[in-house]
Amino acid sequence: MCGIAGWVDFDRDLTDERATALAMTETMSCRGPDDQGLHLGRHAALGNRRLAVIDIEGGHMPMTAEGLAVITYSGEVYNFGELRAELVAKGHRFRTRSDTEVVLHGYLEWGEAVADRLNGMYAFALWDERTQELLLIRDRMGIKPLYYYPLPHGALFGSEPKAILANPLAPPVVDIEGLRQLLSLATLRQRPVYKGMYELPPGHLLRVSRQGTQLRRYWALDAREHTDDLDTTVRTVRELLEDIVSRQLVSDVPLCSLLSGGLDSSIVTALASKHGRIRSFAVDYAGYAENFQADELRGDPDAPFVRMLAEHVGSDHTDIVLGPDELADPRLRAAVVRAWDVPHFVGDMNSSLYMLFRAIREHSTVALSGESADEVFGGYAWFHLPEAVQADTFPWLAMVMREHQPTDILDKSLIRRLDMDTYTADGYRTALAEVPHLDVQDERERRMREICYLHLTRFLPFLLDRKDRMSMAVGLEVRVPFCDHRLVEYVFNTPWSMKTFDGREKSLLRAAGADLLPEPILRRVKAPYPVTQDVGYEQALRAALREVAGDKEAPVLPLLDPAAVREAVTDPPDKVTTTMTRFGLELALDLNVWLTEYGVRLDL
After folding, report:
1. Whole-angstrom Cα distance, residue 410 to residue 415?
2. Is residue 294 pLDDT above 80, yes or no?
3. Sign of the CA dihedral 452, 189, 107, 160?
4. Are the beta carbons of 152 and 166 closer than 8 angstroms?
5. Is the pLDDT of residue 298 over 60?
6. Half-sphere exposure (CA, 13 Å, Cβ side) for 13?
């Protein structure tokens, strides 16, 4: 796992730009603390910061096939062993044991069609010395990030926006469109927050040549008739999961699992433990289980189920316990904003994840996660509520933004200019138009196919980006077995009636893992990632916003509604706000950190 950065310019000699290319690369040091490399040619500079996971000694990057091509690579290809054997049979010779060299030689053998053969999570750049072209490729599900910034005679690229913003040719400017994207609770555009910058979409590749840029999609979900019966379907899901987890255990460094006590992470941990004792980690809050209060999203705390699964599979388990003072530390907020490159309003769901990963990194370099099972198998409550399914918008928005929105704290005239309702509605219509349908399909199945597609393409990207940013900010590689494209394709085309055959959420997954788990975990209802319920955290948020409001030089003040801020900071000290109201406090504080640290120019 690594961080990549680079610059292609056909109108200048980049051998004179070493300092800038190094500065771009250095911004990725958090993603790659083990090694640094830079390839500097006349028209192409490729940088790499490496987190060594496979072939510790031999995987230095950028990696070169002399006179042919150069690659800077981030991610893991899990079928590199099979591809290597195939390439050896075709006459290729390898100097290392790394998957990076397999991808490089795969390109030399198959060109850009190498993307069709890869199984894994990856984002990489290849400079072809023969054609003088740059090729950017991102994995099918978008697990690994990749951004680019077109120039008149080339392009900048990087794993994160900060790599691109380190180049003077890419100033940190945010316009009204970028602000809309920042405030959206769905991934509606492939243009990130910063003006002129783009995110390479999942399953796409980009060619950069003297003629300009050419974007091509190499993978997409399609509609296939599902002909397997229920028993075969359950067996296929299990076989796929067995293979996926087995592949993703390959590592030359310590590996662990993230365990919440829910169905998804428990199945991953149980499958991993079949290959040997595994270390597991869970996040918890001081006093959380003892003082837990059920709400509309969470019916029970995680801790008892975590202990149950850890004992059941015999994992070497550690709880990472967090307190409200740690979560409210302004230095932690600043670190999280720097990890994202933009503000976010999900508050301690970000900061606690960052702290969890930071603690895990002291023991392991790689972690397996249960992320994306809910999107693949239909786990969220709103998959099963008629008012959400039938809503003329993204179903999660219909559920979580019924009364308050984080943007309620913003200036009212700015809210009117943003017109988030229209922006969201346009994004929703665009997403619906993409959904692949079967020729013959009843209305219920048709709608649920749409709901599944919306989650996989508009909701999951945010969660994957969050997981990647919080983990790679501390040099931890997180793998997501449920995002294997073979599993996603198979389950996507399984009828909804089969996905809910027992009248519950995630029926197929539950059936596929029935023999792996204790009965209480098998029966447990989906519980989202926990947030602290400690009133001390609420008080700290209000105090921090009160301090910002009292600073006449605070850059965020022109964006906020003074009346909303006054109400927020004068709430009773023992009040616990609704989730969306609290997210508004988080948004205001994050915006202030971002505007201060990034020197953002708002072009509104």
Report:
1. 7
2. no
3. negative
4. no
5. yes
6. 2
pLDDT tops 60 at residue 403: no
252 touches 96 (CB < 8 A): no
Other C-beta atoms closer than 10 Å to the C-beta of 392 total 9
Bridge partner list, 49: 3, 36
> Any idea what DSSP says for residue 560?
B
| Mean pLDDT across 272-295 | 84
- How far is residue 104's CA from residue 107's CA, in Å, rounded to a whole number? 5
Residue with tokens 């993230």: 258
How far apart are the C-alpha atoms of 494 and 306, rounded to whole Å?
30
State the pLDDT confidence band at 404, using cuts at 50, 70 and 90: low
Q: Which of 451, 472, 439 is nearest to 354 (CA)?
A: 472
State which H helix or E strand residue 270 sits in: helix 263-273
Residues 70, 62 contacting (CB under 8 angstroms): yes
Q: Supply the DSSP symbol for 475.
A: T
Position 433 pLDDT exceeds 90:
yes
Q: Would you state the pLDDT for residue 343?
A: 92
Residue 410 is given by DSSP the state B
128, 134, 145, 117: which is closest to 4 by C-alpha? 145
Q: What is the DSSP letter of 591?
A: H
Better pLDDT: 404 or 450? 450
Closest to 285 measured CA to CA, from 299, 302, 297: 302
**Active site residues per annotation:** 2
* Per-residue CA distances from 574 to 155, 535, 577 (Å): 52, 6, 10
Strands of 78-172 (E only): list them. Answer: 120-128, 133-138, 147-151, 154-158
Residues 209, 214, 219, 220, Cα dihedral to 10°? 160
pLDDT of residue 412: 96
Listed in sequence order, the DSSP H helices in 29-90 are 80-89
Helix, strand, coil tally for the chain in percent (to 5): 45, 15, 40
| pLDDT digit string, tens, across residues 39-67 | 999 999 999 999 999 989 888 999 999 88
Closest CA to 199 of 150, 128, 126: 150
Q: Quick check: bond before 528 cis, omega within 30?
A: no
| Overall size of the chain counted in residues | 604
Q: What span, in angstroms and rounded, lies between the C-alpha atoms of 157 and 125?
A: 9
Average pLDDT over residues 98-109: 97
- CB neighbours of 112 closer than 8 A, spacing ≥ 6? 135, 137, 205, 207, 216, 218
